[in-house]
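Predict the 3D structure for this chain.
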Amino acid sequence: MRVMGIDPGLTRCGIAVVSGPSAPIPGSIGSAKPGFIAADVLRTHPNKDLEFRLAEINTQLNRWVETYRPEVLVVERVFAQHNVSTVMATAQVAGLAMVAAASRGVPVAQHTPSEVKAAVTGYGDAPKEQIQHMVKRILGLAELPQPADAADALALAICHVWRQGSAVATDTAQQTSAQQRWAAAERAARRTGYRSGRGRLGKKPS
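Done. Predicted structure below.
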């Protein structure tokens, strides 16, 4: 599975691709080792008009999606800040990334900065330097990923790989529990002369 992470920004947009298990391994959160594929920062000049900067980012985003063909695209969830213009530009770039994915049928996921930091470092308020060091360690890189925007994009992708494994583990545990309850009820029904096929027990969990 290829996961593309996008740390949206108008002047610097972090973008990265990592590999993960083709199918998430139940209970594997933090243990499935992601593999590094690519990372970079898409840049636009702050002196250009907004529409041209967005057009440049859009072209670069689409080029990356076409080149690496991710199976899921992960975007950092945008939160309000004191600088409204910065938030708006960031949200616009995030929207471009989502459209690039949706137009090709690629699923989109979003994670908050604190979710990503907690997944990668174990601490929701970790500084950027710590994220860089942990990303380097997790992916087995020879040096720190630079700049920080590229490391943030890698961290997003890593977070999604691990959270997918956690989600599957939860679903599997719930399904197993339902199957166990049904089996116990069926045994009890047999002892009292009822059969599951008569609708007494309901539908058997799949």
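The two ends are 26 Å apart (CA to CA).
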